[in-house]
Amino acid sequence: MGILEVKGVNKNFGGLKALQDVNLSVQEGTVHAIIGPNGAGKSTLLNVLVGKLRPDTGSVMFDGKSVLGRKPHEINQMGISRVFQTPEIFTDLSVLENVLIPCFARRDGAFRMHAFESVAHEGTINEEAEQILADVNMADKRNLHAGSLSRGDKRRLEMAMCLVQQPKLLLLDEPTAGMARADTNNTIDLLKEIKETRPITMAIIEHDMHVVFSLAERITVLAQGTPLVEDTPENIKGHPKVREAYLGEAQV
Amino acid sequence: MLGIGKRDTTILLVVAFMALAAPIILNPFPANSAMAQFNAGYPDLMQRFVIFGIFAIGFNILFGLTGYLSFGHAAFLGAGSYAAVWMFKLLSFNVIPAVLLSIVVAALFSVLIGFISLRRSGIYFSILTLAFAQMSYNLAYSVLTPLTNGETGLQVYTSDPQYLRGEGDPIVTHLFGLEMRAKETLELGPWAFDFSVGYYFCAILMLISFYISIRIFRSPFGLMLRAVKSNNHRLSYTGLNSRPYALTAFIISGAYAGLAGGLLAAMDPLAGAERMQWTASGEVVLMTILGGAGTLIGPVLGAGFIKYCENIFSKINENVLHSWFAALPDGLETGLVWVASKFVGEGWHLTLGLMFMLVVIFLPGGLVEGGQRIGRALRRRRGQDEPGRSAAKEPAE
């Protein structure tokens, strides 16, 4: 029994069958990649997992509880954090404030009327925030406006914001999309480091085979809304069905 | 001090000093001189400064922090005024119950309007609040006449019960016997300074409101409100529910508006529906943006600035203009007066509009940004500009 269990999920958009009978099981503590050519239903699946879309049929269980019908903030409070394709951060706030917010969210839940306390007097929370910034090598940038960061730094910051919540599952939506090779390698290193230092489960949706094979322990291949195969990276590499699905698309 | 940082304490002390010394600071010209018309240190106007200051401080908690632009906050101002006058009619002329009820009524009213309006954001939210306020305005004129006394406006009559009124109580608004209109005049040579009870009552409430707003700005709650403005999407994926945060900010700012409305009635026990009109809602938006939305001191500055200009510009009429340009040749004088008269008196809104445009185009951060730029320029001239400081743009104060 995995930490995330997707069973028999179907999702149609009008006549388009975006997801057909998808079954997926992500084991605790592993890095699980979901790959597939364009239009395979990767993003739809992710949006189902975070509560943005509701599947027509099927069940999604996380940590023994159903996520269906819950709002994104409730699903996050269950322990799923998400990294977006383009980094989503609070661009008007400082880098430190960006990581303070998830710290408060973890301690105080979805809403708390703490209007008469002072952020500066929250000792533990500030320490936690400083620590995570140090972990992602951004401590010296703590007072910068987050909007002024480079794209790579925005990605690191978003990662820090997710990690500081100590999620049980970290969802990454094409974390290297549109990045230069050097930035991609930096991101891979960062993710590897996270994987080594923290007991974290990750599910990565990715296009870039280089990223997938550097990180993943299990790979699910989606094509036309259905999982083709699920296996270890070594077996996936030579799998004929995968070659067929990707024909000419990538150097598998 | 008081649980706020050093810089905030300084700001609070400066505002406190300005507010408490206002009767002196705002009367720089001798009472009989030609410049006396630019004095602003009389109680009626100073009360407006601080009351609208409270209104704008509250509005800034909603608009400045969460970015939700309400075009209907005058509804809460009006509701506060009506509530206060009802307290005068039913209990006594004491202002304390009046002010308290005006806060409570406006807060309850804003729960209702906020709950519905916050289902939408952006322009749709603004339109919803505007619609609710106009609805309140029209209701106050029509079906709610028993509560609002319609066009005449709600006022206190001698036949009103005033159940708590004691034997010797004043028949004007008062604070435990201290009449609001009472004032001491201090004459120093040609100068005259008025110290009025009403003004100090409002000023102290404004300082308390300002202090509360500083606390909110620096609290985790305030941080969440700024996060709502910055990236609502990220906020929900960080496990936070933005709806109750925005609603609480809406209610707080509604309560501030109610307090301002209650104080308007406490200074002059009258309440009319025009207080709820959209122009009044628009005015507080102008004040906040002109002063600097999202900054602590901006709304206070904006409120003072607009109320001062309104007072000065609308006082100037053609006779005054003629006396100013009297030295010029006749044809030129008539021409100049004709042009200038469009900008003063009744037409002062044209001046306000122009100033607003200039500020929005050249100083998007309002008067506060203007002050910061001057400060930076001075520092640079003194050669004390620390490297990296301008790059690390600091979060708005």
Automatic annotation (TrEMBL), chain A:
SUPFAM superfamilies recorded: P-loop containing nucleoside triphosphate hydrolases
GO cellular component terms attached to this protein's record: plasma membrane
UniProt key word Nucleotide-binding: yes
Keywords: ATP-binding, Nucleotide-binding, Transport
Entry-linked PROSITE patterns: ABC_TRANSPORTER_2
Gene Ontology terms, MF aspect: ATP binding; ATP hydrolysis activity
Domain ABC transporter: 4-249
Keyword hit for Transport: yes
Gene3D superfamilies, sorted: P-loop containing nucleotide triphosphate hydrolases
PANTHER family: CONSERVED COMPONENT OF ABC TRANSPORTER FOR NATURAL AMINO ACIDS-RELATED
UniProt protein name: ABC transporter ATP-binding protein
UniProt organism field: Pseudoroseicyclus tamaricis
TrEMBL record, chain B:
InterPro entries: ABC_transp_permease, LivM-like
Signal sequence extent: none
Protein name: Branched-chain amino acid ABC transporter permease
Domain of life assignment: Bacteria
GO CC annotation, single: plasma membrane
Transmembrane annotation, as ranges: 45-63, 94-116, 123-144, 197-217, 244-264, 284-308, 320-341, 347-371
Keyword match Signal: no
Membrane-topology descriptor: Multi-pass membrane protein
Gene Ontology molecular function: any one: branched-chain amino acid transmembrane transporter activity
Pfam families: BPD_transp_2 (PF02653)
Localization per record: Cell membrane
Keyword terms: Cell membrane, Membrane, Transmembrane, Transmembrane helix
Species in which this protein is naturally found: Pseudoroseicyclus tamaricis
